[in-house]
Amino acid sequence: xxxxHVVAIEAAVKAVSEMKEINHIYFVACGGSLAFMMPAxxxxxxxxxxxxxxxxxxEFVYRAPKALGKNSLVITCSHSGNTPETVKATxxxxxxxxxxxxxxxxxxSPLWNAAEYPVHYxxxxxxxxxxxxxxxxxxxxxRILNTLSPCSKWEKAIKSVDGLGAAIEKAKxxxxxxxxxxxxxxxxxxxxxxxxxxxxYGEAYSFAICLLMEMQWINASCIHSGEYFHGPFEITDFDxxxxxxxxxxxxxxxxxxxxxxxxxxxxxxxxxxENTFDMSDIxxxxxxxxxxxxSGAVLRSLADELAYQRGHDLGVRRYxxxxxx
Amino acid sequence: xxxxHVVAIEAAVKAVSEMKEINHIYFVACGGSLAFMMPAxxxxxxxxxxxxxxxxxxEFVYRAPKALGKNSLVITCSHSGNTPETVKATxxxxxxxxxxxxxxxxxxSPLWNAAEYPVHYxxxxxxxxxxxxxxxxxxxxxRILNTLSPCSKWEKAIKSVDGLGAAIEKAKxxxxxxxxxxxxxxxxxxxxxxxxxxxxYGEAYSFAICLLMEMQWINASCIHSGEYFHGPFEITDFDxxxxxxxxxxxxxxxxxxxxxxxxxxxxxxxxxxENTFDMSDIxxxxxxxxxxxxSGAVLRSLADELAYQRGHDLGVRRYxxxxxx
Lengths: 325, 325
Description:
The first copy, chain A, has eleven helices and nine strands. The first copy, chain A, has helices at 3-17, 31-47, 57-63, 84-95, 110-114, 133-148, 152-160, 164-186, 201-216, 252-265, 287-310, and strands spanning 24-29, 52-56, 72-77, 99-104, 117-120, 191-196, 219-224, 242-246, 269-273. At the A-B interface, helix 2, helix 3, helix 9, strand 7 and helix 10 of A face helix 2, helix 3, helix 9, strand 7 and helix 10 of B.
């Protein structure tokens, strides 16, 4: 990881360590950036005795949670640093006295200026994965954990961020044939369901709303594995396609239960099983927290292949960035 | 409202008032019962300086938030009182020392026995709406608010629960023609999107997963109005059907923005506008909190009409209650 990233992260962590009291941690962003932070909220829930939650930026701004204040830690993210709702959310949080940390690819952006502690991440194929958004987020949250509740586990977690690149390559290689076959087979689908829970729910959510709906104009619906049996499972049928993530973490049981039912009635399941990943580059104690990042990489390969098979480039938009909205 | 309901609610509220400290309020349930409590979480967020959040029951059980403990208030709900995940969640919360309140239609059910403070609600067409699930939930949460932060507004809110029945009838009458037309026109749709935010998000969510997916086997996807522009809006097209709730509360701007865009590109929008409801039976100060309940009643009428037009009774299931899962 680049020294500049570590310096920015450590400044943010120092501010967190100096908070007299933290009674709540808010993760606030829009769309893919919100989904990207969901595993962080999950990890804090599991490991900190401080409750954490996530909000879409404008829901946070207009709902205006009354509990937001000087005992709040607010972590926001916008890739471009220009998402107006997220800039506003960060401003609101800072005005209320919260400690604000913002992740962005663009230094000097409105978000960068809105947050007290902006943290940069790299982007693009040439960057080391530890310097990309997920590597930087995980470095930040494991350092926060190591400050608020120091433990050798967090030292190992911080080191494991450096193994992310190798682990991702292995996961992609492992799924390469399956991904190719899936793209070919499902290129004419009009609707695809995704399902996950725990640390991996965010990947299921962003695949539905960003990769399928936004970038492929394919109808999609993300189901929480724990909600599947309480309504959604009634749409299951032999020809209904699902992408199911079997997590490696505490909520795997939910995913397994949903998968075991779903596969009896649907013949069209794409399974991403985090227990099959080679995670030797990541410390065993924290593998459950990194596994969803590997699922994310496999899902991204699915989107790339689908885009190729359909001749519908992932960069094509009809509304986004094309007009006022 | 029945005296027995008031007695049970007041016992629960007394326990809340006797908590030394409350650092978090968890709403935990599955499917429709989870959706049903979402407006309560919204109201607490708006009005209490104690953070609140909601979890699907098994996500809560297996994720096992570390912050859960004696300073937690946990409110669960299961209509039958038999939902195993919700019973377990209540047991886990109680073991950890949280104050547990459970809402259920079935006295003496496993959920009833799991919670320290069970609260009954009525069911069926003959019951007064103030004694049905939503009336009882609102009576509970406004009484909790009135204990934790006493104010004439909460007295008015508690009284307004008695006006719910009349307000619902007016909303249903207002939308009767639109509902009939909608059911006829959309009976052959294979996929319907729903959209909402704030207090009304839960209604959009439960219409998608319970009414459409579960009870009509129609594909559905619920979009948060604040997330629409960050991915989902790219699937908008002239023939894509949406049901959009324009809320009456703090987040109405999000809904309006999504609706104003969506209607330019889709010709198939069913709009439920909470600002058009006659809410004279509800105190003006708390109308924004009751409006989503009226939207819920209108959406229920839509489902009834769709079921009639399709000859697919809302009570039909192929998996639920039919087998082990």
